[in-house]
Structures are given as structure tokens and as C-alpha cells.
Amino acid sequence: MPVLHDIFDQPVTLPAAALGHWNDTARAFLAHGAATPVHLGRLLDAAPDHASGHALKGLFMALLGRREGMAVAGEALVAAKQGEGNGRERALTASLERLLAGDYDGAIGALEAVLAQAPGDTLLMKLSHAIRFVIGDASGMRASVERCLQGHSEGHAGRGYLLGCHAFALEETGDHGAAIRAGHGALDLAPDDAWGLHAVAHVHDMTGDAAGGLGWLDGREAVWAHCNNFRFHVWWHRALMLLDLGRLDEALATYDAQVRAEQTDDYRDIANATSLLSRLELEGVDVGERWVELADLSERRTDDGCLIFADLHYMLALAGDHRPDAADRLAARIASDAGRQNGVAARMATPGMDAARGVAAFGEGDYDTAFAALSRARPHMPDAGGSHAQRDVFERLCIDAGLRAGRLGETEALIADRTARRGGTEDNYAASRRQKIAAAQKHVFRGAATG
């Protein structure tokens, strides 16, 4: 029997009737397409006893970072172990098993072992990229993608999606010019590559070019309209650009119409919503009762414990709606989880405990405690996962806590460090806080002079 190969020229042991569904699932996943679960369902129907479909389902569910999703992923692992497959397909099962055990390095390693021999495997590249994103491993993302470049020459079916991942990794490691070029190249080859499009949006954020960012996104809505809830995240980026330009009413309107168009309890959607509301409130915007539904959803997930990134955004919601009892329960659970021995626990401990304590204190107006805790967490925040842009809400809370606590010199140093890590370009947030510090210092000086 001839060996079948998928769209990326990688061997599969699936029945021939299932190959098209495998390809459709892979393409949809790479494009963050809303149709991914539809194609996966068809794949599982066509090959119910094959390991690879169940392993993919499990990985997709585990990456959702939800307790109930982990249970489904565990069931998928059992089914995958009972099926057959080649080395590549067994690696998917091994990666899932390690991920469910909280062993991020092991999950990545299982995929990278295959990629070392088959750098043209776009699907496994994207899965490795996704896991590294969850743990904030920017340098690992970049190294992984760049090892795969040799396997994605011109004409390779996955080259556009690889370039999109490269663009994001370049941006997260500070190579902004190369990130722009890779992002444009990604869309040239894969017009539905919302990840590459959003990587370029990240560059505009990190370089303080909100106007350029709007120019990049506006008119390209079709690139992310087909997406799953990732489309809300792209709209979130646009709202951040409006915020930086001082168009606060438009940013809030975008929250209602796009960012929170569906009131889901997916942690990624809650992250978009809570971080945007927090930023708006720091700029003096009255967000009304918008915190309530987010806090209701977040309070139900205080025992989740899958990702510290998710927990910290649940804490933003609880702090935003001033629910100290629920915030205390979440902080206690994070502390309890931190005592375990795996990659999840390590991130609950550092930066999780300090970051959670700092956010909760900020919500209660205890700015001295908030500043101290968030300052301790700050050097370790990449380990919480996500991107520079996503984690910046905690940076802003730390800076604003310092301002409100009167820790002007220390806060000024944080602003300077934040600007340096953003390529030396000052955005309007940093400029406005420097002005507040200058005004406060002038006031203190005048008081001392007349005292």
C-alpha cells in the first residue's frame, strides 16, 4: 500500500478517505479558522480508530486552558493511545500526554524531535509555537520557527503560515523591522493568516505607532473575519490603538461591538475584555457596569488552575468589580497550586502569587502593596505566558500603583525601562505618566520650598 502524504508532504497512516479532512483541519487550525472543529469532527468520523485525530483533538482542547477542556483532552489521550500511527502521529500523542501532566518542555520536545527530521511539518511547527506562546517562550518560538525555515522553501503549502509565526516571534524578540517584512510576506502567501496580520499589529503597538497600526488593520478585516474567537483579539488590538490616540469613546464602543460581542467565558476573551477595561479605567473612563458580567464568569473559574495567564485575568475582573472575597479565594488557590511539582505550578509560584496579590491590592486601593507585589512579579512576567502587549496591562497597573503610592523615583525608572524594552519608543501612556510624575515632583518641590 503506498504511503499517503498530507498537504505539507508529511506521511500519514490515515485511511485515504480521511486525508482531505486531515488537510482541512490542519489548514483551518493554522488560520485560526472558526471551521476547525467542524473539520476535526469530520476527520474523527472518517477515522474513528486512528490515533492522530484524537491526539489533535486533545491538543486543541488542552490549549484552551479550561478545566473541563482538560477532562475532554484526557479522554482524547486514552483514545489516541489505543489507535495506531507512525512516528509523527505518535509524537502528537506523546506531546498531549506531557501537556496534560503540566510538562511544557516535554510536550514541546516531543514535537521538536519530529521537526528536527522534518522541518517542513507546518502543523507540528504551529503546535510547538502555540505551546511556547502559552508559556511566554519568545526565544524558543523564534529558534523553532527559524529551524523550520529550511523546510519551507518557495512553493511549500505552509510557508505563509510559517512566516506568520516567524513575524510574531521576531516581534516578541524585538526584531521589529524583520517582523514587519515577515508579516507582509505571510499575507502575500496566505491571505487568511490572521496570526501574521496580528504580528504586524504587535509591532505597531511596541513601537508606539498607533496611527500606523490603524492604517495596517483598517481595510483588512476579511483577514480575521473567518476566525474563531481570535477575531475578538484582533479587534482588541485595534481598540488599544484607539486608546493610545486618545479616542477613548471609540475604544469603549469597540469593546461593546467587537471585543465583547459574545459574552463567553473563554479565558482568551476574558483576557481581552478585562485588560481593555483596566486600561480604560486607568485613563479615567467610566466603564459603567461592564465589570459585572466578567466578574460573574471569573468568580466561577477561581478553582480552574490551568494557566496562570488565565487566573491573572480572572483576578483583573474580580478586582475591577471589587469582589475581595472571591479575589482572596483565587489568590489562595494560586498559592496552593504553587506547591506542586510541574511547569504549571512553577508559574503559579513565580510570577503568579505576587502578580495576583498586586492586582487584588490595586482593586482595593492599597497602592503601596500593589506596587510592591507587582514590582516583584515584573521581572518574571514573561513566564506567565502571552505576549508583550497582553502583559502590558500588569506593567501599567504597576506604574500607576507607584504613582498613586507616591513612589515617584522608582516609578520613573520603571517607565524608562518599559520604554527601553519597547525599542526605545515612548507611547502616549508613558508620556502621560512622565508628565504626571513631573507635575507631582514640582508640587513636592514647591511644598518643600514654602514649608
Question: Mind explaining what this structure looks like?
Answer:
The chain has 451 residues and is mainly α. It is built from 24 helices and 2 strands. It has helices at 16-30, 36-46, 51-62, 67-82, 87-100, 104-117, 122-134, 138-148, 159-172, 176-189, 194-206, 210-217, 222-225, 230-244, 248-259, 267-282, 290-299, 308-320, 324-337, 343-363, 367-377, 388-404, 408-421, 428-450, and strands spanning 4-5, 11-12. Strands 1-2 form a two-stranded antiparallel ribbon. A hairpin with a 5-residue loop joins strand 1 (4-5) and strand 2. Helix 16 packs across helix 17 (290-299) and helix 16 (267-282) packs across helix 18. It is globular and about 80 Å long. The model has no long low-confidence stretch (mean pLDDT 96).
* Count of beta strands: 2
In one word, what is the shape? globular
Uncertain segments of ≥5 residues (pLDDT<50)?
none
The quaternary structure here is: single chain
Radius of gyration: 22 Å
Number of helices: 24
- Give the structural class: mainly alpha
User: Average pLDDT value?
Assistant: 96
Instruction: Give the topology string: H per helix, E per strand.
Output: EEHHHHHHHHHHHHHHHHHHHHHHHH
**Strand neighbour order, sheet with most strands:** 1-2
Termini separation (Å)?
Answer: 93 Å
Q: Please give the largest β-sheet.
A: 2 strands, antiparallel
Strand content: under 5%
Helix-residue proportion? over 70%
